[in-house]
Amino acid sequence: MLKLRPARVLETRRAHDGLESDVHVRSAVEVEQRLIVELTDGEAKGARREAIADTALVGHAEVGDELIVNTQALDLGLDSGGFDVVHVNLTRGLEAHPGPADSDPADSDPAHPAGPGDPHVMKLNYTSLQHAVAPVERGTLELPIGRPTAVLALHGQLAALAWAFQQTAPGAKLGYVQTEGGALPGGHSRTVRTLRERGLLAGHLTAGACFGGEGEAITTAGAVHHGLRVLGWDAAVCGPGPGIVGSGSTLGHGGMSALDSAHVALALGCPTLLVARMSSGDQRSRHRGISHHTLTVLDLLLEPVTVALPAGVRSPVGSDLRAGLQSVFGGAMPSRPAGDRAALAVEVERPARIARHDWRRAKIDLPAFAGSGLPAQTMGRGLVADPLFFGAALAAGGVLAELVAECADDVTSGHAQEAPDEHVADAPGEHVAEPSGEQVG
After folding, report:
1. Is residue 437 part of a domain?
2. In which band, very low, low, confident or very high, does the pLDDT at 314 lie, cut at 50, 70 and 90?
3. What confidence score (pLDDT) does residue 321 get?
4. Which of 371, 373, 390 has its CA nearest to residue 382?
5. Could you give the residue ranges of the DSSP H alpha helices within 118-198?
6. DSSP percent split of the chain into helix, strand, coil, nearest 5
7. Mean pLDDT over all residues of the chain?
8. How far apart are CA 400 and CA 148, in angstroms?
9. Is 440 within the bounds of a domain?
């Protein structure tokens, strides 16, 4: 059941800034407003709390406005939900602004039905927040697309991937498709806003139940096809918004959205790169080394994909993974009790299902990424606390740029290229790459 409480606005802020000025400037991706509210009823009456408002849904709030807020996440103490969410603004949020979707059908011309630019498809359908959007899906299906798509496990990988992609392929257009698994509102990501402002992302589409991007897609397939075929992206990256749904179980987490997105990309004829979730700093053993989230997806995929590792990480399977990590990250590896020395080894029941993928290595430059000023946080850990997490994302950005170049070569030559020998997957336990020696933090 919804946990709704009345509240009053005490302060207003922009979602990605401090206190608001008298002039409100909103970009295409600045649709979230931060508030300080006071609960006006119930056991917590008088409590000051942070809240967010999706202004595209509930309008812009001002000091003194009376609201109804959803308090569930903050009451539960969820790590990624440390705020209330405005459900409705009782003072001014009930004002309707008629648009194409609100026009009287009797006034329409039967010879000219609603076109693709008219909002006529519901998002969050059959909920109290359902709203009409104009979907990007239109025209014919052109397959194979032949342009690469990367698939994220976590939103925190996006900035590092986009930065490394542009370092390797300057001027190439990378677009982001936001999928389910984390936050649904497109305006909730500070990272997307920053990357768009700095030209590291060419666009932002929200797919499925996600909403509020620069374009709305009914499906992930429709978003990827639109971005690569219509908008002219050179590559796409699909992944959830900030935060991730999780239960600690094998299949009950938002990272499983990567399985769906990867299958979509494969079906559309896109060279597909899975961005490995890796960690050298997570206290949970199931996420150290290569996370069980990534291993599960690699096991269940119907077809092989490409996976990137930082140069120097040796075999994707087996007890040598820790040695490979130490060879790359050296002193950056956290110290662990003697009984936990094997905690970074990958344990899988079906190693052949993991080794069948195209494992590639890419040089990374963590100090340069740190100097970029881009967001670098995952579960409260930064670059120093978890260099492997960001190293894996940087490696993926570099390999994605390689795939763009390979696709361009394929178009030029008119036939698919054979994979280079060094990209052949290692057999479990084999050591085929030497440490690169580059600085990594």
Report:
1. no
2. low
3. 47
4. 390
5. 158-168, 190-197
6. 30, 20, 50
7. 80
8. 7
9. no
Q: Is 321 exposed, middle or buried (0-12, 13-18, 19+ CB in 10 A)?
A: buried
Residue 430 belongs to a domain: no
Give me the number of domains the chain comprises: 2
Tokens linked to 14: 């922009």
C-alpha to C-alpha distance for 24 and 345, rounded to whole angstroms: 51
206 sits in which H/E element: strand 203-207
User: ω before 144 within 30° of 0 (cis)?
Assistant: yes
Q: What is residue 249's predicted lDDT score, i.e. its pLDDT?
A: 83
- Residues 386 and 284 sit within 8 Å (Cβ to Cβ): no
Q: Which domain holds residue 71?
A: 4-89
Largest CA distance in the chain: 76
Statement: residue 327 has pLDDT above 60 = no
Q: Is pLDDT larger for residue 281 or for residue 299?
A: 299
How do strand 48-54 and strand 4-14 relate by DSSP bridges?
unpaired
Give phi and psi for 187, each to the nearest 5.
-85, 0
Residue 379 lies in a domain: yes
Closest CA to 157 of 369, 433, 371: 369
Rounded-to-integer distance, Cα 228 and Cα 224, Å: 6
The token pair at 404 is 């763009």
Give the separation between CA 214 and CA 28, rounded to whole angstroms.
Answer: 6
The H-assigned helical ranges of 169-291 are 190-197, 220-225, 257-267
- State pLDDT tens for residues 86-124: 999 999 877 655 433 344 434 433 333 334 568 989 999
Residue 337 has pLDDT above 70, yes or no: no
- How long is the chain? 441
**Distance between alpha carbon 36 and the CA centroid of its chain, in Å?**
27
**Does position 260 have pLDDT exceeding 90, yes or no?**
yes
Structure tokens belonging to residue 159: 């900035």
CB atoms within 10 A of CB 81: 17
Residues 224 and 363 in one domain: yes
At 129, list the tokens: 């927040």
Dump the DSSP string for 275-323: ---EESS-SSGGGSEE-HHHHHHHHH-SS--EEEEETT---SSBTTHHH
CA distance 251 to 263: 16
Extract the tokens encoding 204. 């932002």
The single-letter DSSP state of residue 185 is B
Task: Report the pLDDT value the prediction gives residue 347, as an integer from 0 to 100.
Answer: 55
pLDDT digits (tens, 9 = 90+) for 3-23: 999 999 999 986 555 433 333
Mean pLDDT, rounded, for 66-81: 85
